[in-house]
Amino acid sequence: MSAFLKLLFRNRLAALGAVVLGAILLLVLLIPVLPLKDPNATATADRFLRPFSEGHLLGTDHLGRDLLSRLLHGTRLSLAVGLAAALIAATIGSAIGIVAGYFGGRIDNLIMRGVDMLMAFPYILLALAIVAALGPGLMNALIAVAAVNIPFFARNIRGITVGLAGREFIDAARLAGLGHTRIIVSELLPNVLSTIVIAMSTTVGWMILETAGLSFLGLGSQPPQADLGSMLGEARAALITAPHTSVVPGVMIFLIVMSINLLGDGVRDALDPRLRSGALSRPRATTLVDRTGPVPEDDGKGLLALQQLQTEFHVGKRVFRAVGGVTLHVEKGECLGLIGESGSGKSVTALSVMGLVSSPPGVVTGGAVRYAGEDLLAMRYADLRQRRGENVAYIFQDPLATLHPLYRVGEQLAEAIRCHHKVSESETRERALELLRAVRIPNAESRLGDYPHEMSGGMRQRVGIAMALANDPDVIIADEPTTALDVTVQAQILALLDDLRRERGLAIIFITHDFGVVAQLCDRVAVMYAGRIVEQGPTKAVLAAPAHPYTSRLIACVPELGGGRRELAAIPGLPPSVDDLPPGCAFAPRCDKAQTACRQGEIALEGTGPRAVRCLFPEEAV
Amino acid sequence: MHALEVTDLSKTFALRSGLFGGPRDGVRAVRPMSFSVSRGETLGIVGESGCGKSTLARMLVGLLEPTTGSIEIDGSALDTADPAAFGRLIQYVFQDPISSLNPRKSIRQIIETPLKRLYGMGAAERQARIAEILASVNLREAFLERYPHEFSGGQAQRIGIARALAAAPKIMILDEPVSALDVSVQAQVLNLLAELRARLDLTYLFISHDLAVVEAVSDRVMVLYFGSVVEIGRAERIFAAPKHPYTRLLAESAPVVGRPLRAPEQTGTELPDPLNPPPGCAFAGRCPRATALCRETEPPLETMGEDQLAACHHPIAD
Question: What CATH number has the domain bearing residue A255?
């Protein structure tokens, strides 16, 4: 709760809204103790007194009633009616929405078509019709405003519920013996409550305005009772001669609605988890680079080389050291495997190369990334962008998420080509066709016109690879490109990548968690744990005789086909969180060989020739 | 006696008929299939996406009503589609450990629900049972007041297993229980499951796409393709000596350390279209052994060898 308030008041406009609304509420609540005149006491002799007159701070209206008193009483009434209408609309609308979303099918259809019908009428017409049927009066105006706003809540909550009703925890609740009512009340409602609050906070102001509108037309509060709408309505006749009678309630309506809307937007922003995580804030075009130490000198190793790369995520006061000094390189025509478990920093390492880690919260805090000797981290954005796709290209895990769903794959390929080369329409088409053939897509010609959703997962990933090849890059970084695919399709994609590398002399950095894949595809392998490389070397040597205890234990965990039924080896414990790394070796708490020395100081990545290990007591001497 | 006996179970999802078109055939997600599982056995179920594994599993726990067929547990038929009736006999462990736990409920509330709703236990009784369940999945009691987002995937999966155990079922359906977990954690969960099975005399149906994992934990393995059973056999035999060409293709596609990389089949083969299923064997379009017979008549599941069954006109000889 306190975190919510802190977040809310960091938003200046929301804070302003809260202050204004708070002041209005305070005044309204203090009505009984304030020395106010009777709001309905007429004194025709004192008609239309100007503001700041003796005894009437805001003047009087056409019947000589004290405007200040009427204003405060009217505000109280308008606020109460608006809030009540919002509560009624939210309760009924959300109930309808949850029921429709949870049961789905015919019930959903029936309810939502009814709601649609309600929405088909212009809302003011509908409200007028309801009031006309029930007769004028504040209570009826309230009912009308509430009824008119039910569809908004019903649709909003139904949308959220449909998503939740398909989630596995609802199935689990059913298997645990819960009936429909209990599932709705105890499983669904707590999960949609914040959405209901958000929807309410953004509509209360609107409902106050609608009630005032009905009162203005004489359909809401009846004389002599004052609410803001009826005050405006009565003052209309004297708009020119005594403008203050309309300005006073007008300003109040303006203040109330504006402050509620500002506060409501603030509440929404503070409650919405996507906004809170910063996921909807626009990241910079390239990762922020803020290197404190000296930039490592070019050592001439490899086509693409990472030197002591450090990438951190700064979230509030916490610093997540996702990549803690990674050094690796890849030569032309070579395939380097980068292997590690989730959270080991392998994907962040890959994204840091071309400045694709989103900032905020990502920051590159040290090291260098060299492509043919040039430091990519020091490069201007325009130059870096020129190299994205042209020199270094990426293949991602989920091709459905990386391809644009609304463009044909041919158009997307063409766009990737035209980004870097000025070529004619027919030439791009020719080139796109060639690319699809290169990734062995059958009937390439007709496939150019397909949308991504029309293709199978394996075909989509082929398009993803074709796109990475579009500008003949020298380096391809493939981040778990086969994890989302079935095994038979995975085998095809791996074979394709291997062929392409040999045909075109591509350098590939292949990120995976699967030793089988690494063994089949990669020349060298680097093993990551908690943001650092713990071992690297030629794949065959590392797999046959792993030197780091983590590598050897991890290999033992992987079941291999053909072993029959057996007990599997496990590594006890969990990987450390990268915002709270232990001193010394990060694997020490899970390692059965760890000694005191392992828990102190920096341990270097050492070895001879192509192999290196970051361990004081390695399994094998390297 | 069989712990679970399934006869002619199938599921067809109805398609909405077009505005002007007549009624259309539905999508046959699971074609009529029969199999049985003995008490204390683990039956592995493998197949690729879209083969009907999850539809089958959801029917077995009553979350989905079968189109045809019957399910018998311990000799008594279960025909109702009331998950609570199923709940005491058969439970489900979900693939995604985090999304199968309600984010707004504490672990105690999650584990308590089946005790309350399925068995109507009192508070004191529940307390004792929860302690017992937590101990059996190696979780500390201090976790009870925490919420799901505070746990890692492996811990969350153990909470999911604890919830299933709370219902004291005879059979557990494990739907890809470790595929969302890292390998170092995956083995912890698999070993826990094996230990629980032995101690509590449970019967498992273990669904996975990872052949090596299935082989390591199962007694028998059932291979599904396009909604049908193509092969059933003992775990140690089925991938080593497959009868059905699809089983062999699966086994050859799994990446194995020390085996050179090659595509096990021609590129460009596409899965059959569920809206327009081919006549005959569904695998014929991808099968190197297919003949005209395969493209016309669907092969029945027949005993081949000792205790291996396969649905193939031209099975692979030993």
Answer: 1.10.3720.10
Q: Which domain holds residue B286?
A: 242-255+277-318
ipTM confidence: 0.88
Chain A residue with CA closest to B265: the answer is: A492
Contact A482, A491 (CB under 8 A): no
- Phi-psi category of residue A353: left, alpha or beta, with phi > 0 → left and psi -120 to 50 → alpha: alpha
Q: Nearest-CA distance from B308 to chain A in Å?
A: 16
DSSP, residue by residue, A398-438 = -HHHHS-TTS-HHHHHHHHHHTT----HHHHHHHHHHHHHH
User: Is B294 domain-assigned?
Assistant: yes
**Chain-chain contact of A457 with B49 (C-beta, under 8 angstroms):** yes
| pLDDT tens digits along A218-246 | 888 888 888 899 999 989 888 899 899 99
Q: Note down the domain range covering A21.
A: 2-29+77-276
Among the partner-chain residues B154, B183, B259, the one whose CB lies closest to the CB of A554 is B183
Q: How many structural domains is chain B composed of?
A: 1
- Contacts A498 to B, Cβ<8 Å: 261
Question: Residue A543 domain-assigned?
Answer: no
Residue A208 in domain: yes
Position with higher pLDDT, A86 vs A121: A86
Query: Is B43 part of any domain?
Result: no
B286 located within any domain: yes
Do B215 and A564 make contact, defined as CB atoms within 8 angstroms?
yes
Q: Which of B16, B46, B102, B111 to substitute to test the interface with A, most A CBs within 10 Å?
A: B102
- Rounded to whole angstroms, how far apart are CA atoms A567 and B195? 10
Selected for mutation to probe chain A from B185, B270, B286 (highest A CB count within 10 Å) is B185
Residues in chain A with CB shorter than 8 Å from the CB of B175 are: none
Contact (CB, 8 A) for A355 and A287: yes
Residue B300 lies in a domain: yes
